[in-house]
Amino acid sequence: MPNTQEGAIHKAKMLIIEDERSMRDVLRILLEGEGYEVISAHDGLDGIGWLQKDIFDLIITDIKMPGADGFEILRKSIELSPDTLVIMITAFGTTESAVEAMKLGAYDYIYKPFKIDEIRLIVKNALDKRRLKAEVSLLRQTVRARYEPANIIGESPAMKELLHLIPRVAQSAANVLITGESGTGKDLVATALHNLSDRADKNFVAINCASLPEGLLESELFGYMKGAFTSASQNKQGLFEVANEGTLFLDEVAEMPINLQSKLLRAIDTGSFRRLGGTNDIKVNVRILSATNKDPAEAVAAGSFREDLFYRLNVIPIHIPPLRERKEDIPLYIEHFLKKSSVGKRHISPEAINLLMNQPWKGNVRQLENAIERTLLLTDKDIITEADLPPGITKTYSEDKTPMTDVSGGIDLKAVIEGMERGYITEALRLTAGKKAEAAKLLGLSFRSFRHRLQKYGIR
Predict the structure, then answer these.
(1) Cα gap 124→126, rounded to integer Å
(2) pTM exceeds 0.90, yes or no
(3) Largest Cα–Cα distance of the chain, in whole Å?
């Protein structure tokens, strides 16, 4: 069996399974001439061996072959790699076998002898269909807010500098590490960097490194082959492959388990990786954008974030300041959320705006948006006043003061703190409609830490 890589940049990968050598060579030369990466197998068993080893965009297989026929190849391909398209080709076809092949899931069915232009057209159409299917699937899974000035708002000096920086950084191929507290809009900056880059027409793939356990996160990033672990019932491409030629956004990257960080480092250094259960390297061309709500230098010092990985990811650093440090931006966000959420023309009074500008906004822009949405749901008034704002909005907030309770008679401090914590968790879950990852971000907690607290208090 010839040796090849488990992937290639800029090329569709095809498997030809044909026991007649001259026909196999004709197809291989034709398709290689079209710029595709081609693997050829001399019979059905050889072809099944390749299916167990790799993932292909397209398979062209003869039907009548020793060892395993084309229908067995088709069934095996559907089992191992359902997204791979299969074209059946034979000199012994009948109408019945054509119908059977299509029922089983073949993309197309042609007879020998065939015309060269016919093969070219069928292959092109098959690859176009596969590409469109993959794009639709990706769009359904990933929210890709296009970059517009309205999506990243600010008149403060820090935000003006950020808005000036984003288009310049977008044109670079360098990795970017975006830092900032939860809710500041790190995902919007990442999306903008992709959409303003020369990779904008390629995939933007995002994953939250804090929301998945280590084993699942690794399989999502790098993919796997059937049998790599108990539930691996078929071959699957990882997000590195899906993002090939595009952008991979690693949100909350500092939460990635330390063992997995070394594998990520190798993938970045070499531009290649191996699927779980795979034996060969896959080459990819991916730009890495990362984000964290932690201080990465502190994480490195604590030993939870590899220093060498930090330097690979932090080629260009971008920091988003918290909302409380740029209060002049708050009225702009309020106006934006009013336009985004309200039906008809609704306004907010100057007194209410002033009150909102003097809140701590520990959840930053996300918390402010939730507050505006909640207010709009609970009142039908055209002019929103201080009295209409959510109960959590207080007139007595001060950065250097905390609400105090009379302790002269003694208190159970632990119970008080736990009660407050439980209350905040419950409120965060309510504001996010039960979405735990979003609630964790709203509270400035990692998903693991948030999940631990849910278990501690018996909250579901």
Answers:
(1) 5
(2) no
(3) 97
Number of domains present in the structure of the chain: 4
- Residues 6 or more apart whose CB falls under 8 angstroms from that of 121 comprise none
pLDDT tens digits, 95-136: 677 677 777 888 888 877 778 888 888 898 888 888 887 776
Find the domain containing 363 and state its range: 324-402
Q: Which of 224, 233, 356 is nearest to 278 (CA)?
A: 224
55 Cβ contact list (under 8 Å, min separation 6): 6, 13, 81, 84, 223, 235, 237
- Residue 285 domain flag: yes
Residue 3 inside a domain? The answer is no
In a domain, 2, yes or no: no
Residues 244 and 312 occupy one common structural domain: yes
Residue 4 belongs to a domain:
no
**Backbone torsion region of residue 162, taken as left when φ is above 0, otherwise alpha when ψ lies between -120 and 50, otherwise beta:** alpha
Q: Are residues 180 and 274 in the same domain?
A: yes
217 token code pair:
């996160």
Q: Is 125 helix (H, G, I), strand (E, B) or coil?
A: helix
275/396 same-domain check:
no
* 101 and 181 belong to one structural domain: no
Q: Which two tokens stand for residue 446?
A: 């990692």
CATH of the domain at 418: 1.10.10.60
- Give the domain-ending residue among 402, 426, 449: 402
> Same structural domain for residues 355 and 433?
no
Backbone angles phi, psi at 54, to 5 degrees: -145, 175
d(CA 128, CA 136): 12
Contact 29, 55 (CB under 8 A): no
**Alpha carbon 91 to chain centroid distance?**
45
Q: Which of 93, 110, 140 is at the close of a domain? A: 140
Q: In whole angstroms, what is the distance from residue 315 CA to residue 326 CA?
A: 26
Q: Residue 15, Cα to own-chain centre: how many angstroms?
A: 29
One-character DSSP codes across 201-265: TS-EEEEETTSS-HHHHHHHHHEE-TTSSTT--S-EE-HHHHTTTSEEEEETGGGS-HHHHHHHH
In contact, 47 and 282? CB cutoff 8 Å: no
pLDDT digits (tens, 9 = 90+) for 357-400: 989 898 999 999 999 988 988 888 888 998 889 887 866 444 44
- Model confidence over 287-315: pLDDT tens digits? 999 999 999 999 999 999 999 999 999 99
Question: In one letter, which amino acid is 49?
Answer: G
